[in-house]
Model the fold of this input.
Amino acid sequence: MSMKAQRFALIGALVTTAILAGSVNAFALPRAEINRSLPPTRPSIHIATTRETIPPFAFAKFCADQEDQCEVHGGHEPILLTRDKRLALQKINAEVNHDIRYQDDPTNQDLWRAGVTAGDCDDYALTKRQRLMAAGWPSSALRIATARTQEGIGHAVLVVSTVEGDYVLDNRTNVMKPWYAANLHWIKIQSEDDPRKWLTF
Done:
């Protein structure tokens, strides 16, 4: 072999060694280091449900007492969240939060009511839904959902479905938040197709 050929062979061997060493080092990185370089997963703007489930017992009683609030109202066209509609949602959320005085249900009773002056979280949610339907919003876009707070306390809110995403109207705040930013552990929610049907997460 000539000197020139030997030199090329030596260079080739060094390059191959460097590539292999780099590959070993890359795979030797701790898993945390590899994961840290991956972009964070963005949550969906809409809530995903899995299957039909049993409605809350108190909701079934509510439907027996106020049947009109459990019927389909309006169509199923997606709601475009214009500036006016956003302002309407924020206004009704703040008004109901102000107008209803928080009051726990009597011991061993879970009462769901709409249009009250005093009540707990489900009453706030149902009253907001009632006012929005009276203002022309379709029932398919207005769904009551049950969840647990970060402290593990049972809670109910109104979820408003729009083209831009699902938003939560909560009696704990006047700020309308995307569903994934509400700091809740979701349990079940009304169906868009039938207010009497509920779905699990």
About this structure: The chain is about 35% helix and 20% strand. The CA atoms of residues 73 and 139 lie 5 Å apart. Residues 3-27 form the longest helix (25 residues).
